[in-house]
Amino acid sequence: MTMRPQNYVAIWITGFAALAIILVVLSDILLPFVAGMAVAYFLDPVADRLERSGLSRSLATSIITAAFIVVIGLMLFFLLPVLQGQVVEFLKNLPNYFQSARGWAEPMIERWIAELEPGRMDKAETVIEDFSGRAVEFTLSLLGNIWAGGMALVNLLALIFITPVVTFYMLRDWDRIVSKTDSWLPRHQAPAIREQARLMDSALSGFVRGTGLICIILAIFYAVSLSVIGLEFGLAIGVAAGLLSFVPYLGSLGGLAVCLGMAFLQFDETWIIGVVAGIFVIGQIVSDYILVPRLVGKRVRLHPVWIIFAVLAGGSLFGFVGMLVSVPVAALFGVLVRYGVNNYLASDMYSQDSSANGSKNIESGNSEKSESEGSN
């Protein structure tokens, strides 16, 4: 039975539409499975190396999974209490920070109000009241969403208990899944598909392993540097800024804004505020000019603006899970787009258009030349 190309296109479109619907419907429970698949993909080269050394796949998978759980457990055991204490202390001191900021801002606001005309003063009060009302509505809505989102605790428990199970089975059966998927490929198109899959694997490995390592390095650098200079909650802010660095400039700019505000409220010396800014400038320079070229290189080949758009789009569509998978999906999409563009440039559609335009230009040039010779 033969199928027309239109049928293949319809099948692929239907498959992608069904997958998108499933992801939207099940987005609340996808986090442990996505995390387990990501960890399995990250650790698959280690399992292959142990397997080549003589261990069975199941034994290698068991050793790697156990070691990974122990490392994460130790990190949480030593780091989580400190981070939790800093977050609790920050929330406890938040009213004092607001009071300090208010005391700093009130003189400027009073001078600004004194310079306003009576009519503009009424408009300013209206704007302030409207903004206050919207802020209250937003806060109540946020609290309502948190209260209604009881799935947050369920997701946390699932992340702790289900992710290791998913990681173990995916890591154990990874080669078998790849081999089975390869057997389903259409035989005459299998080489081209394998080549694109190899490029996708290179792009994903470049992002997952390279960017993950960069985030860890920056988290350690920011946390240690901010703690050394004595910034309150520097450890928690530094870790958060480093882990958010998978989005270009989000971690550095967000951490810089928060740390400058904290430094302004905590220190009287201006030079310490400059040191805080210098820490994030150094971190961004090291990331852009040393870490990214060495650990990621040009394998991902995504523009920073496209990465930011992908993260925002993924978060808007699928929440936190969408933010996690947005850049890998964008990298895969970039491979497919480059493949399509290269095929177009090598196709008759592109070359015939160029030759047609060139022949038209030659014909028009010859006609103009003959006309000029006749007139002479």
Taking pLDDT < 50 over at least 5 consecutive residues as the criterion, the unreliable ranges are 146-150, 368-372
Secondary-structure element order, N to C: HHHHHHHHHHHH
Using the CA coordinates, give the radius of gyration.
Answer: 29 Å
Q: Which structural class do you get from the secondary structure elements? A: mainly alpha
What's the β-strand tally?
0
Portion of residues within helices: over 70%
- Main beta-sheet strand count, sense and barrel state: none
Q: Give the tally of structural domains.
A: 2
Distance between the termini: 68 Å
Shape assignment:
globular
> Hey, roughly how much beta strand do the residues contain?
under 5%
Total of helices: 12
Mean pLDDT figure: 76
Short description:
The chain has helices at 5-25, 31-52, 57-114, 118-148, 151-172, 174-183, 190-228, 234-243, 250-266, 270-296, 304-345, 348-375. It is mainly alpha-helical and 376 residues long. The protein folds into two domains: 30-176, no CATH class; 192-346.
Description:
The chain is mostly helical and 376 residues long. The protein folds into 2 domains: 30-176, no CATH class; 192-346. Helices cover 87% and strands 0% of the residues. It has 12 helices and no strands. It has helices spanning 5-25, 31-52, 57-114, 118-148, 151-172, 174-183, 190-228, 234-243, 250-266, 270-296, 304-345, 348-375. The chain starts with a helix and ends with a helix.
How is the secondary structure organized here?
Elements: H1 5-25, H2 31-52, H3 57-114, H4 118-148, H5 151-172, H6 174-183, H7 190-228, H8 234-243, H9 250-266, H10 270-296, H11 304-345, H12 348-375
